TrEMBL record, chains A, B:
Species this chain originates from: Serinibacter arcticus
SUPFAM superfamilies associated with the record: lambda repressor-like DNA-binding domains, Periplasmic binding protein-like I
UniProt xrefs under PROSITE patterns: HTH_LACI_2
Any Pfam family matching the protein: Peripla_BP_3
UniProtKB keywords: DNA-binding, Transcription, Transcription regulation
MF-aspect GO terms: DNA-binding transcription factor activity; transcription cis-regulatory region binding
HTH lacI-type domain residues: 5-58
Protein name per its UniProtKB record: LacI family transcriptional regulator
Length: 351, 351
DNA sequence: ATGAAAGCGCTAACAT
DNA sequence: ATGTTAGCGCTTTCAT
């Protein structure tokens, strides 16, 4: 721990005015001699400009914020990677905030309110739920916000979205092509934006196939443990069937489409608990195509939503708006892509 | 997006001086009438104080930083949870930075240098490598730093450590008690602090057992893919043996002690690739006891290093130092604890 | 209880 | 090319 030097001290030591010192340090007009003197003085003193003073004067902090609901979900880590790449290239520093529960003391709303104090020059946000309060807060914020997700048309906010409904449909089509006909949908909370979209995608996809027997189930959140629990109820409603009974029963689904990878892995565990072979008796698919797909066995078929790419695009939108605050809000979209792995294909399941 | 109001505007609207407005808003001496007027004006204008101006005047930002090498490793997410709990309770806001590669453009060193600009009031750091440069930067920083990890004695920095050498020894003892005698150590880079400590723990533990045949191997980093690759070389040195040959060979280890969970899961995959049964033919243990231990099958025996608790303790140390910068540096330690699961016990492996 | 004014550290006119 | 000065928005003496 050490005392900080101010520009005044540097100027004094260099024997020049504070203005000259500032100019020399910032590469503006200054004689080589002055630059040399000032630079040496700054080095001697270990001078670094004060962020608060600079921000106050310049009206910007050089800092950007990325806010996610749950940094424990690898999909957000991947998004962050994409954001970080672009943000760093643009000369900004990135800070990450995990808002956790949407209503806690560190809710997204508090975060945006805090942003109005000027902690950062911009925000990238990937909200699970888009409430009227959130939209109001978004409209009232003095710093640019880019949302990764889906917003009402009139929101007038830069947005990067994807078609996760189509993504789920891709999974259903794939399973149908593999001969699966009793397909269960394992959703997260239906009142979330992704929950609603994926549910819609599932409903529409199975509606196109009259030969499919479909059912829908909701886990309490998008986590593995919630998925495991919900999948248990889904696969073994009475909670007391034997493996043989379950496997033989036409009531037991032959495929589970989960709304994200965490839920899908929960389903994988439930299937194992109940002795149902994956993919032999039961196929499982996820959404997000996170690194977890390769961690489990069999590896998990999953719909890629190009998280890293979405992060990059969001960061690019933000930087562009920072340059030109008046430009029209833009909505970008990336297509989903099914990644087939062992959990849904009997042939690929055996190596 | 919206314009920000300043205190001056609030004061004007309330018909009082800027000083009175400040006092009223901050709950200092002010008549009820003034408080009422000012509060109303502030509400009307949607006033929030400017963070930069406040920080410049007060000399502190109310912000703390938590820096980790790789936010993709769940152990850091867990640490962060602990940090966040304490930091929030203390009224500070937390920002997280993933420094990635130690030498990249966003290295820890840059981070600490940035901190000298006054972006945050304090830093919690969990470095993989403790270089002389890092120590120098630590000594020169004007804001308090707490390190989670191990530092040279003379560093004079608040530290939260654990005995990961003992942790690895715990794993070795457990495996020995289970009858394993050909134990391989799968380390990460040996030039890292945890790498060195865990290596030492392994060497000492096996030295106490003359009947153990030990070997040591290094992965290029602490990731799953590096672990898988290194485990392949470890289990199948020629790269062309059949499963039967490997299983029958006395040269093939009957246990792998990995230096963290990611490496251990890599080893699990390598074992599966090669057809070696876990835990039947090969036991595997990890370190960190992350959530990943429950994701894999068989579930992973792992040494808990109480990551969340260490995060809490680090945050408490930091807050205490913020209150009293003069207090003597403190070193806290938490003990390791072995969590036995399916990957190391033949009985527990069969459910 | 309230107002006037100084000043945190810095940058950017403006003048020389 | 360099120095003087105003001022970013806020808190806090110091008078009154």
């Amino acid at each position: 721990m050490v005392q900080r030097a101010t520009l005044t001290q540097v100027a004094q030591r260099a024997g020049v005015s504070i203005a000259s010192a500032s100019r020399a340090l910032n590469g503006l007009v200054a004689s080589p001699a002055t630059v040399e003197k000032v630079r040496r003085a700054a080095d001697d003193l270990g001078y670094v400009p004060d962020a608060s003073a600079r921000a106050l004067k310049m009206g910007s902090t050089g800092q950007l914020t990325f806010a996610v609901d749950d940094i424990g979900n690898p999909v957000y880590v991947e998004m962050m990677t994409g954001v970080q790449e672009v943000v760093a290239a643009g000369g900004y520093r990135l800070q990450v905030t995990s808002t956790g529960a949407t209503s806690g003391p560190h809710s997204v709303l508090d975060l945006i309110r805090n942003l109005r104090r000027g902690y950062a020059d911009g925000l990238i946000l990937s909200p699970l739920r888009v409430t009227p309060e959130l939209l109001a807060e978004l409209a009232a914020t003095p710093v640019p916000v880019v949302v990764i997700g889906r917003l009402p048309q009139h929101a007038g906010v830069d947005t990067v979205m994807t078609d996760s409904a189509l993504g789920v449909a891709l999974a259903v089509e794939h399973l149908h092509a593999q001969g699966r006909r009793r397909i269960a949908f394992l959703n997260g909370p239906g009142d979330t934006t992704p929950g609603a979209a994926r549910r819609r995608g599932f409903d529409e996809a199975v509606a196109a196939h009259p030969d499919v027997v479909a059912s829908t189930h909701e886990a309490v959140d998008f986590t593995m443990s919630a998925g495991r629990e919900a999948a248990h109820r889904l696969l073994d409603p009475t909670g007391r069937s034997t493996t043989a009974e379950l496997a033989a029963s036409p009531g037991t689904p032959d495929a589970v489409v989960a709304a994200n990878d965490l839920l899908a892995i929960g389903a994988l565990h439930a299937a194992h608990d109940l002795g149902l072979d994956v993919p032999g008796r039961l196929a499982v698919t996820g959404v997000d195509d996170t690194s977890l797909t390769e961690i489990v066995h069999p590896s998990l078929t999953s719909v890629s939503l190009a998280s890293r790419r979405r992060g990059q695009l969001a960061a690019e939108l933000l930087m562009r708006r920072l340059e030109d605050p008046a430009r029209a809000p833009q909505v970008l979209s990336v297509p989903p892509l099914l990644q087939v792995r062992g959990s849904s294909t009997t042939t690929a399941g055996i190596r």
